[in-house]
Specification:
The protein is built from 4 helices and 8 strands, in the order αβαβββαβαβββ. It is globular and about 45 Å long. It has a domain at 45-153: 2,3-Dihydroxybiphenyl 1,2-Dioxygenase, domain 1. The chain has a 4-stranded mixed β-sheet. A 4-stranded mixed β-sheet has the order 5-8-7-6, with helices on one face. By secondary structure, the protein is an alpha/beta fold. The protein has helices at residues 6-30, 53-63, 89-94, 111-120; strands at 45-49, 67-72, 75-79, 84-88, 103-107, 125-131, 137-142, 148-153.
């Protein structure tokens, strides 16, 4: 068995002592409280890739009743009540499939009433209004590019 020098023993002790310090530092970094400037503030808008910008803009404006905030080359931005819904032709051309595992949920005060109003404007529902929680209902539909959309809220405008 080779002789271990005093230097090697000291080095081994330093390494052994350093391991818990390094592990503690890693854990402390993981549990570090974020400063307000380090946190994401809020979702500002949702951007959907579309294949036909005008067709999609007409769907959201004319059938769903959203107001167009602005338009620019390849984009339409709509007011979706506290969040902006953006439609992007470039995103639709570069990402396949166009529709992903995402659902845009519109909060409403009367699911059954909004369902009837949207249906009257030509929106085809994939799922009819149904109870999804003790007090909330939902109904699902899709936009012209197949993006999953839904309305969500109480079943009627009256308190139940």
């Amino acid at each position: 068995m080779p002789a271990v020098s005093l230097f090697q023993r000291a080095a081994a002790l330093v390494v052994a002592a350093a391991v818990p310090v390094v592990l503690y530092a890693a854990i402390a970094q993981k549990d570090k409280v974020m400063q307000p400037s380090e946190k994401l503030k809020k979702v500002g808008f949702v951007l959907l890739g579309v294949t036909d910008l005008e067709r999609s803009a007409a769907f959201y404006r004319d059938r769903l009743g959203l107001t167009v905030q602005s338009k620019s080359e390849g984009f339409v931005f709509l007011d979706a009540g506290g969040i902006t819904l953006g439609l992007s032709k470039d995103l639709g051309a570069t990402r396949k499939p166009t529709a992903g595992a995402v659902e845009v949920v519109f909060q409403v005060d009367d699911v059954k009433g909004m369902h009837a109003a949207l249906k009257a404007r030509g929106v085809a529902f994939t799922q009819e209004p149904r109870q999804v929680t003790a007090a909330e209902w939902a109904a699902n539909f899709a936009d012209p590019d197949g993006h999953c959309l839904s309305i969500f809220g109480p079943p009627t405008g009256k308190a139940k």
